[in-house]
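Lab notebook, bench 4. The sequencing result for the construct came back, and we need a structural model before the next group meeting so we can plan mutations. Quick request posted to the team channel:

Model the 3D structure of this chain.
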Amino acid sequence: MRLIYGFYLAVGLAVAGFLGWRAVVFFPEAWKVFGERDQKAFRSVRIDSTVFENEPAAGADTTRLSQDTGLVGLFSRLAVPLGIAKRKTSVTATEIGPVPLYTVDFAKGVPLPQRVQILSDSFAAHGFRLDESSERPRAKFPWAARLTRNDSVVALVRGRSFAPAVAGTFQLHVGFWSDSLTVAELAALENLPAGTFVAIKPDAFAATQLSAISRRSKLVLAVALKVESSLYPVSLQERTRILLHHDMRDLEGRVLANDSVEALAKGVVVLDGDRGARDPGLAGRIAEFLRDRSWWMMDATRTSASRLEESAVEQGVGILVSARKTDSDPMSALEAAAKQAESDGEAAVLMKLDTASVAKFVAFVPLVAERGVSIAPWPVLHRRPTGD
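Done. Here's the predicted structure in token form:
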């Protein structure tokens, strides 16, 4: 028994001696590592709502923190292309210590994810990378991320689409059509903003001051054209209406009845038509007529079976974006179009020309400008014909 006890005692003394020796070696080194713990950097920063709880109430002076990154100047230079309407610089506490925090208010009109992508591409060109970008739809600032450079966190950034849209963000295309151009309506054209188009009958181009007014106000003039839409005898049809049996010579004689038409008109707006708009022969002749003069065409017939646009595409004729011809209250039509522009980016409306409608439109323009909606010229589209 004494031999067994002696063995256990020897083993115990050996273990105790080994642990004592390890303690002498380990603790001095461990203490040295512990003393240097503040000099190590974390490679990641978690972006969540608690990160911003330590932010000062007012913008703190972060000049010292931002001098090495150049972010202040970069934000300033890219403010316009990034759509930044307002920016605040402060500081927030993170796991790696104080970090600059940039709070940006983007102008409305461009979806926030698209803004973030533009910001990411722009900053990448200057050596910064957007990391740990996160979205929190219900938060005060629905987007937050960290900016890194050379694998080091240099700033946090958060943003929201809060500021009013910049003028010109949304485009509204407006046109007027008229069966006859009175002296009062001619004078009213002076007040229309640039980019508006006016479609009038061929004989109205004889107005003496029309050329000077359109040039001064930068208006676009077009021919208001009507094709056959009834079964009345030819003798009862309007003199300026284009009928099914009219050949190219008849077409030219009716549309170019006034010498000023060829010089001033840029296109044709087909206002109505049923049988005529459906007829491929007449539609083809109209398209050839437009092609020979490099005019564009707008089909405002409201006829679903119209062949006009199809024939124009086949002939390589430019097309204006189709606009619904409205006879309703001008303000209601303009407001509906403005809301569509804010939703879709652009919208178009075609209204009847009279002095009251022009006055309401002119008064409407500065009101929607505050919402980022501006009057823009109509784009001319050149589509390719589709195969069978």
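Residues 2-35 form the longest helix (34 residues).
Will bring this to the meeting.
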